[in-house]
């Protein structure tokens, strides 16, 4: 059996930057164990699989796998899946809808080529105590911490976030999907905030650009900065840029995507 495979760099307009995701279009679902094995073999932060819904050319079922587990939500691999449909598979709808474990997710295409994710907002809530493993894991003490799907560690400056050299062994003890470190962007940079995301519990030591984390970061920074349109950068080694907007209970997250690789997976029948 041959399966198409695309590797897409998301949240960037050029290859070798942003966050790489694998995308496998399917006609019907494979066993979960097979999809997990493919994701482990790809050894990228995420592999996305989608299946078209009958009777429509704009709706799909979508699932995401890290090398270790299936996850409930992934932004950059959703962006990558939409890019494959628009760029390579002839999708002509103004917007695509992906049905997922996190509900319906919408992706539209802007005239300049940017893709816009429409995700549910997940505002984090303040925590009074540092969870076990956080300080030893980050090797730094944040100003405040908040809880959501991820643990959000807020620092005073962008320089502190860039300087983090975390211990993955200790961070793996933090009982959240991942740990996101964030701070206001350096004044004059044209950005509002920066972040980094660490997920050793799900097999991703540091994710280059994490769209799903911004469903938590955007509500937080929108309230703190008093604005609903925000420009963000994830300051990992590869880096990536995101244009964000808080719109009620939804978060719009926009970015570019480029194809790095097209190929085939050969599976035994």
Q: Low-confidence parts lasting 5 or more residues at pLDDT below 50?
A: none
Task: Report the helical percentage.
Answer: 10-25%
Quaternary state of this entry equals single chain
Residue-averaged pLDDT, rounded?
A: 95
The main β sheet shows up as: 18 strands, mixed
CATH top level class name of the largest domain: Alpha Beta
Number of domains: 2
Secondary-structure-based class equals alpha+beta
Question: Whole-number radius of gyration?
Answer: 18 Å
CATH-assigned homologous superfamily of the largest domain: Diaminopimelate Epimerase, Chain A, domain 1
CATH fold type of the largest domain: Diaminopimelate Epimerase, Chain A, domain 1
> Judging from the principal axes of the Cα atoms, what is the shape?
globular
How do the helices and strands follow one another from N- to C-terminus?
EEHEEEHEEEEHEEHHEEEHEEEE
Tell me the distance between the termini.
Answer: 6 Å
CATH-defined architecture of the largest domain: Roll
Count of alpha/pi helices = 6
The amount of beta strand, in percent, is: 35-45%
- DSSP summary, beta strand count: 18
């Amino acid at each position: 059996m041959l399966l198409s495979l695309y590797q897409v760099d998301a949240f960037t307009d050029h290859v070798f930057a942003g966050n790489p995701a694998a995308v496998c279009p399917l006609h019907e679902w494979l066993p979960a164990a097979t999809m997990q094995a493919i994701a482990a073999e790809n050894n990228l932060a995420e592999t996305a699989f989608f299946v078209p819904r009958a009777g429509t050319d704009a709706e799909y079922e979508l699932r995401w796998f890290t090398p270790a587990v299936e996850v409930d939500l992934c932004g950059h691999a959703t962006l990558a899946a939409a890019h494959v449909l628009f760029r390579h598979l002839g999708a002509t709808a103004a917007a695509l809808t992906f049905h997922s474990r996190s509900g319906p997710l919408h992706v539209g295409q802007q005239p300049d080529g940017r893709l816009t994710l429409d995700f549910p907002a997940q505002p984090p809530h303040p925590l009074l105590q540092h969870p076990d493993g956080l300080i030893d894991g980050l090797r730094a003490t944040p100003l405040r911490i908040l809880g959501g799907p991820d643990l959000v560690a807020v620092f005073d400056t962008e320089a502190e976030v860039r300087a983090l050299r975390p211990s993955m062994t200790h961070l793996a003890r933090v009982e959240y999907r991942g740990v996101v470190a964030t701070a206001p962007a350096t004044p004059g940079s044209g950005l509002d905030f920066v972040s980094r995301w660490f997920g050793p519990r799900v097999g991703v030591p540091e994710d280059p650009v994490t769209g799903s984390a911004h469903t938590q970061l955007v509500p937080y920074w929108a309230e703190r900065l008093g604005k609903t349109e925000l420009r963000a950068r994830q300051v990992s080694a590869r880096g990536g840029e995101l244009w964000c907007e808080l719109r009620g209970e939804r978060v719009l997250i926009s970015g570019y995507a480029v194809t790095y690789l097209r190929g085939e997976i050969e599976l035994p029948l």
